[in-house]
Amino acid sequence: MATSRDLKKQPPSPSCLFLSLLTLTSLLLLLFTTTTRYNTPTAQTPSSSLCNYNHGRWIYDPRIKSPRYNHSCKEIFKGWNCIGSNKSNANEIVKWRWKPYGCDLPQFDAVGFLQLFRDTNIVQPKHSSHLFSNIRSTDAHINLLPNL
């Protein structure tokens, strides 16, 4: 039986070194192209159907007239419910919206969403209270939806 003392250290073969170098180069190239693609904002044409919603900025939009929720929304934590807490600038805070670079993010249409997903199951992830509060803003309109 051979012991570890009997085994001689042999230098790695050239093919093993070449394969390791090729793998390392491929990984670095993949990492570089992926990082570059996702970290640089790209200007998109209006005709482009794809939009990167991760890159953008908050803009003030005075066209937003009604808040996305009212004072009775119990799903929003009390400290975050600016309207329910009678915050003086609550109606101004809700006029800020996210604007992705190079494209537009339309305002959420709660009635259209409910019509589209009528008679289906909707999974609500843990941190989606914003979506639920937007849907709650349509309470008065629920009975107006036609049966599809």
From TrEMBL:
Molecular function as annotated in GO: O-acetyltransferase activity
Pfam family of the protein (one): PMR5N
Lineage of origin: Eukaryota, Viridiplantae, Streptophyta, Embryophyta, Tracheophyta
GO cellular component labels: Golgi apparatus
Highest taxon above the source species: Eukaryota
Domain Trichome birefringence-like N-terminal stretches: 51-104
UniProt-recorded name of the protein: Trichome birefringence-like N-terminal domain-containing protein
InterPro entries per UniProt: TBL, TBL_N
